[in-house]
Write a structure and sequence with these properties.
Length: about 425
């Protein structure tokens, strides 16, 4: 029998039986046994590539009642060759091939390329051949973008989209052994917009009202991280203060709005490899009126359905992104939670995640690009303990009677 990786079979000649396939392929340093038996009970001998084998040769011959074995204790390349078991009349043979094990050399897990250059993703394999795959994709073959080399994968005209995980696959044809090595490629590149990466300049219109605040957000992808600079083009090209760099590639300009604040602003993001610009135009917009109707339609143990109808807006209030902000809290808790909704055709909005058999306060405000209206509140209500409760009385309230002052906190400057 064979005690080694792979399957075993018998090579039978006359009365001899070798418990091994006729051709055996292993990698070096494997340990296994090959057993030869004779159903006639005759004495058996083994011969290898270097002659007769015995108890002190390599491999070692070991005779047991069930047969005569040769023991390979850590196979070596020089063990490759033909082996013969004989009883003096018949003989049975097998061929052994010993290969060096697959080994990755000069193959770093993390490698870095530079945008616009060629880069060789290094991967060398001893004892086999190499093929390449990209994670989430297929096999990479020679084409205008890639060239498979003896020591790696050449990527031509590297771009940010090449920053991926590549799989270097080592294959040993003789033994069928396959090993993979993942290589994570990073790309050093100029700052770009996270989505529109081919655009070097972006523009955005932002709305605000006098007395309010507005945040201009400049977000990029960059390696190494970008350095940010803000400029105002209202009167003179001067640098702006009150800037918060939230992360290494995100900068926010905080503005408190007065008559002189409206106009053009520019964010410039730079690193060693290039520059990205984003222009903002801050225009005056009027905050919307509160909801015209605010009605509680349905209550269950964990949710409620609200009907919210927007008031008619003046032209200067008809800005982008109109919707509603709903705040809610349990009566015994001091902190408001909130959820924002886009306008729906049926004017119905579902608020989930409430606790059963609990009293809640709820209020809603209209939202547009310039900010929030004042809040409109509902009378206090209680969630059910199980099945839904459909309200049969109207809970429709005039805005004039229940407007609350806006309760959002603004950070002090």
């Amino acid at each position: 029998m064979v005690a080694a990786p792979g399957h075993s079979s018998s090579s039978y000649v006359g009365g001899l039986d070798i418990k091994l396939q006729s051709a055996r392929k292993v990698v070096s340093n494997e340990t296994f046994i090959v057993v030869c038996t004779d159903d006639k009970g005759l004495a058996l001998t083994w011969r290898g590539p270097k002659g007769i084998l015995g108890p002190k040769t390599r491999p070692v011959v070991d005779t047991k009642p069930y047969g005569t074995s040769i023991v390979f204790n850590g196979s070596r390349m020089e063990d490759t060759g033909d082996y013969t078991c004989s009883n003096g009349k018949e003989h049975a043979d097998f061929h052994l091939t010993v290969e060096n094990p697959l080994k990755f050399t000069d193959t770093a897990t993390n490698q870095t390329a530079i945008e616009g250059n060629e880069f060789n993703v290094k991967c060398e394999v001893r004892g086999g051949t190499v093929s390449w795959l990209v994670e989430g994709g297929g096999i990479i073959e020679d084409n205008e973008k890639y060239a498979v080399l003896g020591d790696g994968l050449l990527i031509k005209n590297v771009s940010l989209s090449d920053a991926r995980t590549y799989i270097c696959k080592g294959v040993q044809q003789t033994t069928g052994i396959v090993q993979d090595r993942e290589i994570h490629l990073r790309v050093r590149h100029k700052p770009v917009h996270p989505i529109h990466q081919t655009k070097r300049v972006m523009e955005e219109v932002v709305w605000g009202d006098i007395g309010g605040t507005v945040n201009l957000t400049c977000n990029v992808l960059a390696n190494p991280p970008a350095k940010f600079e803000w400029r105002s083009y209202n009167n003179t090209k001067k640098k702006i203060a009150m800037v918060t760099n939230e992360t290494e590639n995100l900068s926010i300009l905080h503005l408190r709005i007065d008559n002189s604040t409206f106009g053009d602003y520019k964010c410039v993001a730079k690193n060693t490899y290039g520059t990205y610009e984003k222009w903002f135009r801050l225009e005056r917009g009027i905050k919307p009126a509160p909801p015209k109707n605010f009605q509680l339609k349905t209550v269950t143990h964990s949710s409620l359905v609200l009907e919210i109808v927007a008031a008619e807006l003046a032209p200067e209030q008809r800005l982008q992104d109109q919707g509603f902000n709903v705040q809610y809290k349990k009566v015994d808790q001091g902190e408001w939670k909130q959820q924002e909704f886009n306008v729906t055709q049926d004017n119905l909005y579902t608020l989930d995640g409430l606790e059963s058999n609990s009293e809640y306060d709820v209020q809603a405000a209209t939202v547009n690009a310039a900010g929030l209206s004042e809040y409109v509140a509902l009378p206090r209500f209680k969630t059910s303990t199980g099945s839904s409760v459909h309200l049969t009385w109207p809970l429709l309230y005039s805005v004039a009677g229940i407007i609350l002052f806006q309760m959002r906190d603004h950070a002090s400057w």
